[in-house]
Amino acid sequence: MQFWVIQTLNSLALGGLLFLLSSGFSLIFGLMRIANLTHGALFMLGAYLGVSILRFVPNLWIAALLGGLAVAVFGGLLERFLLRKLAGNVLGQVLVTLGIAFIIADACLVIWGGDPIPVPTPQALQQPLRLWGFAFPSYRLAVVGIAVAAAIGLYLLMERTRLGAMIRAGVDDMQMARAVGIPVSKLFTIVFCLGAALAGAGGILGGPMLSAYPGLDADMLPLALIIVMLGGVGSLIGAFVGSFIIGFIYTFGVALLPDLAYVILFLPMIFVIAFRPRGLFGRFAA
Amino acid sequence: MNRAAWLAVLGAALVALPWVAGEFYVNLTSQILIATVFAASINLLLGYGGLPTLGHAAYVGVAAYVSALLYLKLGLAHWLSAPIALIGTTLMACAFGWIALRATGLGFLMLTLALSQVLWGTAYRWVSMTDGDNGLRGLTRPSPFGISLDGATAFYYFALAVTVASIWLMAKFVASPFGAALQGTRDQPRRMSALGHNVGLIRWLAFVYSGFWGAVAGLLFVYYHKYIHPISLSLTNSAEGLLAVIAGGPGTLAGPIVGATIVMLLKNYVSTYIERWNMLLGFVFVLIIVFMPAGLVPGVRRWWAVWRARRT
Q1: Contact B254, B299 (CB under 8 A)
Q2: What are phi and psi of B265, to 5 degrees?
Q3: Burial of B22 by CB count in 10 Å (0-12 exposed, 13-18 middle, 19+ buried)?
Q4: Is A230 in contact with A268 (CB distance < 8 Å)?
Q5: Phi then psi for A130, rounded to 5 degrees?
Q6: For position B1, what pLDDT does the model report?
Q7: Distance separating alpha carbons of residues A242 and A22, to the nearest angstrom
Q8: Domains plus CATH for chain B?
Q9: Residue A201: how many CA atoms within 13 Å on its side-chain side?
């Protein structure tokens, strides 16, 4: 029984991390119509930056904030100075993000070395929470809480603010949005920064669960792709639901069938392809 | 000189290579040939079908793994394991094509990437089968008609023969009415559809055909190295092939050959000085796309035309 409880909680925590990763990916895809293949690398960059920040500031939350900001600045520069040069050439933009992802991954290997670097769990959350005779790892509960808070924050941002309304207008009809005077190019930069910040912060917050290691980017990117295809491009609720579905499939896959955990990831893709090409909540096909 | 003369010179140079060059260069050229088959198979999709695949390493890796596993686990001979690997990988391409072609454009790119990453992760984690990060070693090269391919020169001629045959067959494919229809679906899918062509079927057949040639490249690869590692299934490998096509010039026959040569030369020479191949790969990607988006072959051809026009 403890096994199922723990694995369920692990699934939820992984789902929370995946939401931080895939919500940004989905927003960027929805608005800019490009698949940002640096997203896995930004997640890993966040994790490594967090490791370094923690050496100076031994507080995970501050590290997540600072690391997220640093990755956001990086993402903004990338969008402003590289992707914008290739405006209109969607395939070119995607391949440039792929090139940058390789550069980031190799730079991380140079700077932080090839060995996995564990990230300590914050002191206050090291003791498991005991409820009804079960021991719940408190850090994982906190990650779920953060992800839900981020989801609510993003929802309010998108649905209740002027900025969110402009982004939604850009997602639905970019030409019309430009025509009525919405600064769509500026939105591109903002959304890219926001997505990068979420991925970077997710990387650090995932540190105590996943640690920082080379190849983290290649592990996370396909999960983000599958989530966004499953949930639907540009849909926040899709990214949210998709993240938790993939969190469950992947965690239980690893626990029950460690050899073939990756093969199980075919299932959501085949489901989407066979029954709902737009994804669960998507308004248009990718 | 016309095209036939150029081809004759290139052919003579390739055939004469083992007499004039040392073993290192013969082996390097064998690797370039393998990369050429791989790049040409990607070019069928990207260049002629307008379908950007980021998961073509899947076919190379699966064909190589199937061939290696049939030998190691079942002790099958090469004349039996090679066709099984080719057919099995092509069947996988049938399934993957069905999945990936439900989307076009970036959806297709994401699906091919996700599908191949799943295989990559499986190769890493299914240790009882693939020995994970250690890779599979202790493999052998086939000896067709009793001729051993263990020497560098013998393997080189084998790779050259297979490469020439595959490039020729791919060129025939592209020049056929079906190839014309494929290029039609790249440029004007809706008009093709209105003309009564089954766009989805045309794309799927091209995908399967391209997967088959990817599998051929995979067999050559595993015969050459006598070793297979999950990295052959990785995104890096798919990206190398895609870069070769983009650098050379998608949608041209010479493009993948030039591109694969450049990528393999860069990889072999630069990696003897610095170990940062992935970083260099990233930089080359960015530079080519920003400064030479049409690729080297069309770019140089344009310069050549301008230069000739000035002279006359």
Answers
A1: no
A2: -65, -45
A3: exposed
A4: yes
A5: -100, 120
A6: 57
A7: 9
A8: 23-311 (1.10.3470)
A9: 25
Whether the Cβ atoms of residue B67 and residue B217 lie closer than 8 Å to each other: no
Q: Is the dihedral of CA A67, A72, A75, A77 positive or negative?
A: negative
Q: Token pair of A221, please?
A: 């990117």
Task: Supply the mean pLDDT for chain B.
Answer: 88
Q: Do A90 and B279 touch (CB under 8 A)?
A: no
Q: For residues A128-145, b (16+ Cβ closer than 10 Å) or e, as one string?
A: eeeeeeeeebbbbbbbbe
- Choose among A90, A120, A112, A129: nearest CA to A214: A112
Task: Examine the pLDDT at A285 and tell me if it is beyond 70.
Answer: no
Q: What is the pLDDT of residue A284?
A: 61
Spatial neighbors of B58 by CB under 8 A, at least 6 apart, are B92, B96, B112, B115, B116, B119, B214, B233, B238
Question: What pLDDT is stored for residue A167 in this prediction?
Answer: 87
Cα separation, B285 vs A83, in Å, equals 13
| B109 interface with A at CB cutoff 8 Å | yes
pLDDT at A286: 52
Going by the DSSP 8-state scheme, the letter that residue A117 receives in this structure is: B
Report the C-alpha gap between B133 and A219 in whole angstroms: 15
Mean predicted confidence (pLDDT) in A254-267: 82
Of the candidates A280, A229, A223, A274, the residue with the CA atom closest to the CA atom of residue A251: A223
Q: What's the sign of the alpha-carbon dihedral B147, B151, B157, B159?
A: positive
Residue among B269, B272, B264 nearest B247 (CA): B264
A35's CB contacts (< 8 A; 6+ apart) are A25, A29, A94, A97, A225, B106, B109, B110
Residues of A in contact with B128 (CB under 8 A): 259
Contact A98, B113 (CB under 8 A): no
Look up the ipTM and state it: 0.83
Nearest to A85 among B111, B234, B290 (CB): B290
Q: Which residues of A touch B111 (CB under 8 A)?
A: 229, 269, 273
Which residue out of A33, A95, A100 would a mutagenesis test of the B interface target, given it has the greatest number of B Cβ atoms within 10 Å?
Answer: A95
Residue that wins the pLDDT comparison between A220 and A57: A220
Encode pLDDT of B49-104 as tens digits.
989 999 999 999 999 999 999 988 888 888 889 999 999 999 999 999 998 888 77
Mutate to test the interface with B, among A98, A230, A264 (most CBs of B within 10 A): A98
**Residues 36 to 75 of A: which have CB under 8 A from any B CB?**
37
Residue window 76-95, chain A: list those with CB within 8 Å of chain B.
Answer: 82, 85-86, 89-92, 94-95
Q: Do A218 and B109 touch (CB under 8 A)?
A: no
The whole-model pTM stands at 0.88
Domains of chain A with CATH codes: 2-275 (1.10.3470)
